[in-house]
Task: inverse folding
């Protein structure tokens, strides 16, 4: 039984990692074949957002959803509407639907730029936990990276985001890709 457990641990350690897959893509100067980056800040009293980039060797698509401030749970939230299909988030009234979504095409070159940033900031590494008491609402932002068969998920308390500059750089890069269309 010990041999079986050791073999499983050894196999998982030898498998592909997010870092390795990203390095391979950088060296090949080609975006990864299967590439997903997801940044999510859950909806709450101050609103929220989700950015999802799905890409491949030929480029990708970035979807951005912004959620209006609400005390509703995710199950109670209204359906998504596409940007441009109604009033903008800024001039939406109380009766406007919940999240606003926008999509943008992302070039292969821009995907390689994001790969470089993810490697630079080591985005798969979890931040040091805050020494302060957890925030009252306990909300956490999530950064998920899937490359080929590898996956990483990092959680950071929203209250710690200002001090967690490397992960904020990833969020800002995704928002920049949305504006670069």
Result:
């Amino acid at each position: 039984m010990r041999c079986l457990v050791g073999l499983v641990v050894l196999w998982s350690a030898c498998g592909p990692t997010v870092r390795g897959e990203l390095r391979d893509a950088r060296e090949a100067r080609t975006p990864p074949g299967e590439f997903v980056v997801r940044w999510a800040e859950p909806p709450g009293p101050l609103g929220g957002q989700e950015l999802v980039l799905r890409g491949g060797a030929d480029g990708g698509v970035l979807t951005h959803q912004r959620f209006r401030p609400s005390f509703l749970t995710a199950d109670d939230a209204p359906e998504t509407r596409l940007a441009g299909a109604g009033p903008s988030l800024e001039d939406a009234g109380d009766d406007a639907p919940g999240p606003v979504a926008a999509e943008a095409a992302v070039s292969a070159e821009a995907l390689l730029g994001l790969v470089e940033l993810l490697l630079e900031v080591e985005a798969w590494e979890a931040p040091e936990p805050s020494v302060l008491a957890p925030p009252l609402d306990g909300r956490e932002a999530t950064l998920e990276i899937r490359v080929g068969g590898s996956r990483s998920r990092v959680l950071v308390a929203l209250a710690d985001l200002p001090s967690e500059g490397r992960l904020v750089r990833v969020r800002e890069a995704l928002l920049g890709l949305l504006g670069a269309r």
In short: Residues 165-179 form the longest helix (15 residues). Residues 35 and 147 are 5 Å apart (CA to CA). The helical segments are 2-14, 18-28, 108-121, 165-179.
